[in-house]
Prior knowledge:
The protein has helices spanning 2-11, 59-64, 89-118, 137-141, 144-157, 162-166, 170-189.
Amino acid sequence: MIVTALAFFCCNVVFADAPKTPATPPAIAMKSSTPTEPAKETQPAKPDAPTPKIDGSSESEAEAGVTPGGNAILAGPVKPATGESFETPRKKMIWYGLVFASHGAAAFDAWTTRRAVSAGYGVEGDPLQRPFANSGAIYATTQVSPLIMDYLGRRLMRSRYPWMRRMWWVPQAAGASVSFGAGVHNYRIVP
């Protein structure tokens, strides 16, 4: 409260050498006082309107369809209102390559797991995949994890945060390497 009072006092101080201004300027000026003429108000002069840049009088402007105050014609495409996309064609190609690698590694893992389980050399270690290990449904269920990693990688590639855009490839690469490692392990245990 004290700081506010000091700020108010300091901002409203009138210095002694400052020119004095009247509190209210006179708004009405009177002419001669004759009984036949009523009092008139004097209005300040209004500024001139700006001149138009295109007056529409030249023939080249009329031929081009330029009219004063007309709508502007866009020379190029309009930028979309959505957020900025940070994907490049190179990143897109790498992303598709990682999609192929991760889904291929998941299919290899499914094939070797079904081979090892049906031959009696082991059991499925993942409790969510265990019911599907003896059937052909394991090929479809192993594709769920790569799908999630593909979606996550795509979202990271388009993120507005630079540190996320640098790490977009990690989920897909990690998923593909885990699936490939499990497939190699399963392949080695079956003679």
